[in-house]
Amino acid sequence: MADVEQSVPGPDGASNGSDAVNGTAGRFVSSAEGTALAYGSLLLMALLPIFFGALRSVGCSKGKNASDMPETITSRDAARFPIIASCTLFGLYLFFKVFSQEYINLLLSMYFFVLGILALSHTMSPFMCRVFPANVPNKQYQLLFTQGAGDSREEILNYEFDTKDLICLCVSGVVGVWYVLKKHWVANNLFGLAFALNGVELLHLNNVSTGCILLGGLFVYDVFWVFGTNVMVTVAKSFEAPIKLVFPQDLLERGLGASNFAMLGLGDIVIPGIFIALLLRFDVSLKKNTRTYFYTSFLAYIFGLGLTIFVMHTFKHAQPALLYLVPVCVGFPMLVALVKGELTEMFSYEESSPEEASLKEDTTESDKDK
Fold first, then answer.
1. What is the pLDDT of residues 318-361, one digit of tens each?
2. Is residue 369 in some structural domain?
3. pTM of the entire structure?
4. Is residue 14 in some structural domain?
5. Is residue 340 a part of any domain in this protein?
6. Which H helix or E strand runs over 62?
7. CA distance linking residue 322 with residue 309, whole number of Å
8. Are 94 and 104 spatial neighbours (Cβ–Cβ below 8 Å)?
9. Pick from 120, 259, 256, 238: which is nearest to 176 by CA?
10. For residue 7, what are the domain limits?
11. How far apart are CA 83 and CA 299, in angstroms?
């Protein structure tokens, strides 16, 4: 998906995402403490959306809006995804080579401005439900957009929301304006964390086999595009959008105006994250009141990402994080399942899509009525 790398500040102070060894002569050299703080912060920021996104994925199918319903990834989707991702990545590479980078990033900024507001609002919603004053009326609203009239009228958009959702949208809108105007790394990270958490929560693998196909395919994808070509790094350098988490290595010296960034692509969070979330739901299905496979895969992710950062720092070269994350996130839980004699049960675990689950519930209720 994207690699872990160090970056160099550009003329305007923005990160160009280039490799550490390509620094200019006048580049500021970060202290060991600043570098350690940056790497540690990236690791912590990667863990938060995985942990909370996995917990929220257990019950997200009960959401009130269509936007809250999970998207189930099948084995066919998983097999096609690396090909689609490769075409998209190479297409972006060609776009940046042919067209002006400034105009492309302007369009991307507006696109991610809208998506970021919606993602951050959805992320904030559970917290707002807890802190919203009980004595303040929580009014209900409905946004309905239809086409045609009478019996031929077709519903295009039907979104229900309340006062709490409006407050979340307003706060998210402020962050969005801050990001568009300043491109500040804090605003970038707020949107990036929201995208990652929503991805882990709302993207569901239907079984472990599908997860292995997806992670295996993206393992090859990540290694090829990082080590085999300069496409991944070039796009990362040119792409100004909150699709990565960044943290300045010179924060201790320059404060919030720091500009020498280490970065981690959101794909390296979301892709292992949806597999870890699947294992949590498998733990729940066992009804043993344990979270063995979730904690095993979560600790494996920490080990894999730590290993990625260590190798990147040692060799001073951008690393495909999935090269290290995929083997440990898949291998460790399977080893535990093999030891516990639950490997067959793990691979036989199957999740239904929301439509299939709804159909099963309707069938069950119908049988009860009979």
1. 788 999 999 999 999 999 999 999 999 999 998 765 555 555 54
2. no
3. 0.83
4. yes
5. yes
6. none
7. 12
8. no
9. 120
10. 3-362
11. 30
